Amino acid sequence: MGKHVAKHWVAAARLRTLPLAWSGIILGSLLAAANQQGSWTVFFLCMITATLFQVLSNFANDLGDGLKGTDANRTGEARMVGSGIISAGEMKIAVIITAGLSIVSAAALIAYTYPRLMDNAPLILGLLALASVIAALTYTLGKTPYGYLRLGEIMVFMFFGLVAVGGTYTVTVGRLDLVVLWAGSAIGLLSAAVLNLNNIRDIKNDLSSGKKTVANALGFRFARVYHYVLIILALDCVFVYNWLSNSGFTRNLFLLAIPPLLLHMLKVSKLDKPEDADPLLKELALTTLALAILLGLGHFWG
Q1: Which of 163, 201, 212, 205 is nearest to 184 (CA)?
Q2: HSE, side-chain direction, 13 A CA sphere, residue 9
Q3: How far apart are CA 6 and CA 10, in angstroms?
Q4: Which residues sit opposite 149 in a β-bridge?
Q5: Into how many domains does the chain fold?
Q6: Residue 127: which H helix or E strand, with range?
């Protein structure tokens, strides 16, 4: 594969979305380590699986939007199928291969952690892994993709937040502590905010192509209000998790992430037009990753 071709596949993988995929894994692993149950092997298996799920989602998204014509006039990163750089047939093969690798990676993770898993955890985790693959494929693919039905934020909340943090904690510790889901909810809400910002950027193009999102239902002004609500609720979830936990003063380390989030919301409030939201996507994704690391370290050190 030449450098020119490789560059296009890297672009299709959309590596700037990986911080969100990693945030839940890192937080779940650190919270497990805070419970004296850390495992580098499990951590790396979770990271590989999450990365494959994210790349699968990005490939499928590129293919689905490309086939539907949604990417014809998209702002921001160029999409490979929509621009004709990668054919739909080539992308279908990539989706199949990545889906297969995702399933193999998830199966290896469950098999490795099986001895420590309690009760019905292996079955539940297996079903969640399968659901993750299906969710990655059906965001924009198929006749009724949920990404076109204003359900994107709900699915992102579930899989980037609850499943990523709760699932990682479970395979590491062997059981799920429901309190951990408050921390997972925080990451899920921030991830949903990233998607909402993406949909704010594409609000005009999505409307013209028939893609229904919460952002284009609310309009440019109120989609930004919705954005603030998602971020504030995420911080509320962190406060609740900290209140329910037994960690010491270092649990407040996450407070260092609040100024960047406030600055981010100020920037969103000053947007003149939807397209200007594009540079803020990477910023919010990295801030989410920072909050996950700070919250996890705060409890690990506490």
Answers
A1: 163
A2: 14
A3: 6
A4: 212
A5: 1
A6: helix 121-138
Joined tokens for residue 70: 């949604």
Range of the domain at 261: 3-301
- The CA distance from 217 to 39, in Å, is 44
State the Cα–Cα distance between residues 94 and 104, nearest whole angstrom: 15
Look at residues 85, 41, 44, 33 and name the one whose alpha carbon lies nearest to residue 63.
85
Provide the total of helices (H) and of strands (E) in the chain, helices listed first. Answer: 12, 0
CA distances (Å), 299 to each of 38, 86, 93, in order? 13, 45, 43
CA-to-CA dists, residue 157 to 97, 118, 189, 230, 246, angstroms: 26, 25, 6, 10, 25
Domain at 15, CATH number: 1.10.600
**Three-state secondary structure call for residue 173:** helix
> Of the candidates 98, 94, 88, which has an alpha carbon nearest to the alpha carbon of residue 63?
88
Element at 188 (helix H, strand E)? helix 180-201
What is the reported pTM?
0.94
* Short-list 167, 194, 195, 183, CA closest to 293: 183
pLDDT tens over the chain, length 302 residues:
455 588 999 999 998 899 999 999 999 999 999 998 999 999 999 999 999 999 999 999 999 888 887 765 566 667 789 888 999 999 999 999 999 999 999 999 999 999 989 888 899 999 999 999 999 999 989 888 998 999 999 999 999 999 999 999 999 999 999 999 999 999 999 999 999 999 999 998 888 888 899 999 999 999 999 999 999 999 999 999 999 998 789 999 999 999 999 999 999 999 999 999 999 999 999 999 999 999 999 999 98
d(CA 196, CA 225): 11
Instruction: Tell me, rounded to whole angstroms, the distance of Cα 4 from its chain centroid.
Output: 28
Region of 276 please: left (phi>0), alpha (psi -120 to 50) or beta: alpha
Are the C-beta atoms of residues 198 and 192 closer than 8 Å to each other? Answer: no
How far is Cα 155 from Cα 236, in angstroms, rounded to an integer? 20
